[in-house]
Every structure is written in structure tokens, then in C-alpha cells.
Design brief:
Length: 283
Amino acid sequence: MRPCNLVEIVTPKKIILNGLWFGPAKPKRVIVWVHGLGSSMFSKLGIVDELVDKKTAVLMFNNRGHSKVVSVATTKGKGILAGSAHEKFIDCADDIQGVVNFVRRRGVKNVFLVGHSTGCQKSMFWGHKKGKGVKSIVLLAPIDDRSAEVHVRGKKKVEELLTRARELMGSGKRTHLVSQGTDSNLFNAQRYISLCSGKGPEAMFSYAQAKGSSQIVRSVRLPILAVFAEDDEFGDRPAKDIATWFQNNMQNGRTLIVPRVPHSFKGGEKKVAAHIRSFTGGE
């Protein structure tokens, strides 16, 4: 594994995020990695190891959705409840902008955004809201979170949890957890509604919805590469069908499928890295 440096990032809204800088201190290009739901800057290091070279650095960072329940600090010393259970999805635009600003201030002009899993929605939302300062976006295993939750839990259970979440919201208890006990997927009321209601900006990958909106996806004009795992355990339909939806809805994108790998791309790290390097113009 390659050595790295710990960095501290301050977002425009003064949130402090931690990151790991892999590769040269003065690279020609930087890949900014946006991890998925409940993951962290320590994920997908096998792919990162394949991406770093003499001219390329990779910046992994903990966005506000890392781990389950955490507290992130502000520059004023205040702690904010976050983690996948408590984050507010729209805050991802501030998180990513803070990292892009950090890289650009180091004099790097060739910046690329790579999101994995729910990091794909976050990358696209940033592209929709901001969209300046990076050359292109790579989406790794982009999956609609509601359809994934229904696929794993079943529609009945998801609707039960949504009903509970709406009851909590109506009682002014938006930060109360929807499910507890032995349930490993902990989310508060507002987070579960954002994740699984099929409405709002987080529902941008609407391939599973008869009347779903792809407005956010269509609005992003940066070059996009969407990479799918053929055996994605969170997909409710074949990867080729999801890829077709993306190809039909992206303004400036292309798709490909990595064969015989799960959502994590385990076993296909070298192939994924090669696709990213080719798309972003690396060596």
C-alpha cells in the first residue's frame, strides 16, 4: 500500500473534513474520491493504489455521510451530528466543493471527481449545483437507493419504515432513528425519507420509477463515465438495463459494465482503475 498524508479540509460553510492524500505533493492531476453511504476515506484503497502514479494523486476524504453516527466539527468548534444515519443529503455539495477548492488552491487544474455507490448521487448533485472546477465525473456502481432498499428489505418493510419516518417528522422528531435494536441500517427520520421516498434530489437515478425525474442527471454537462458491476447485489434488474437508462439520460456520458464483480468491484480493481485512467487521460 502506498504512503499518504493526512489533510484537513474546510468547506465553504466552515465544516472540517479529514482526508488522505495519496501520491505526489505537486501532481499534474488529482482524482477526488467520493465514498458511498456509511463508508469512509479508507474504502476502495485497492483501486486507489492502481490510480496513483508520478503525475497523479488521489484525495480520499470523509464526507458528512461517513460511518453510521459521527460528529463533524466546524471551525468554531461546534459539533454537528452526521454519519449515514443523520446526514442531510444536500450538504454533499458543500463537502465536495470544499475538497475541490482545496485541490485547486494547490495549483492543480486537472481535477476529476469519482463517486462510488451513493457517492455517485452526491457527485451528480454537486455537478448540478456547482459543476465548475473539475474536468469530468466518474460514477462507480450508481444505484438508486430506494430500489436497492426495496430489493434488499422488501417493499412492505420499506413502506413500514417510511410510515414510521413520516410519523416522527410530523411530531417534530426528525433526528429520531426510524429503526433500532439489531437493525444495522440506522437512519433518522429525515434521512430515511430522503433516501427511500423516491422523491427529492436524492431520487435522481429514477430508472425504477414509472414517473421518476431525471432532471438532475440531464442537467450535468460535464463528461461522465458510468461504470456498472455486472453482479451488483443492490441492483433490482440487470446491470445492462440500468446502464441503458443512464445512457439515455446523460447529456455527455458513456457507460460500461465490468463483468463478474459485485457492487464493491472486488476482484476487478485493476480493470476499474484502467477505465478511470483511460477516461481521465492518465498514463
